[in-house]
Design brief:
119 residues, tt1808, chain A, three-stranded mixed sheet, 19% helix, globular
Length: 119
C-alpha cells in the first residue's frame, strides 16, 4: 500500500491546535494547503488597495488585509488578500472572521495547483 485510503479530515480547530511550523495554511473542505508568504510587491499592492477602501468607507465598515483567517465552515478557512465587512455584517468579526464577509479580493498566490497539502 502506498498511502492511506482516506485522507485526513482537518477542521479549523484542528489546524489551530497544531504546532506552528512557520507556514501559513488554508483549509478547503477539510484538506490543508500551505500558502507562500506575501512578496514585497504583493504587500505594496495590498496596502494601496486597503488604503483606497479605507478612504471610501463612511459608515464604520471594516477593511482587513492578509493574513487573517476567514472561517467559512468547520473545515474551510481561507486567508484572502483584502477582506471587506459592512457595518451591518459586523457579527462575523470575532477572534478571526467567522462567516461570509461582504467582499474579498484574492490573488492567485495560494491556489490548489501550487500549494502542498498537509499530510
Amino acid at each position: 500500500m502506498t498511502g492511506p485510503l482516506v485522507k485526513p479530515y482537518v477542521t479549523y480547530e484542528d489546524l489551530c491546535a497544531m504546532p506552528s511550523d512557520g507556514h501559513r495554511w488554508e483549509l478547503i473542505d477539510g484538506e490543508a494547503y500551505m500558502c507562500p508568504s506575501l512578496s514585497v510587491r504583493h504587500q505594496e499592492l495590498l496596502q494601496r488597495v486597503g488604503v483606497a477602501f479605507r478612504l471610501a468607507i463612511r459608515d464604520g465598515s471594516g477593511v482587513f488585509l492578509a493574513p487573517l483567517d476567514t472561517v467559512l465552515a468547520e473545515a474551510t478557512a481561507l486567508q484572502p488578500d483584502v477582506i471587506f465587512v459592512r457595518a451591518e455584517n459586523a457579527a462575523v468579526l470575532r477572534d478571526v472572521i467567522r462567516g461570509a464577509p461582504n467582499l474579498v479580493v484574492r490573488s492567485p498566490r495560494c491556489t490548489l495547483a501550487t500549494s502542498l497539502p498537509l499530510r
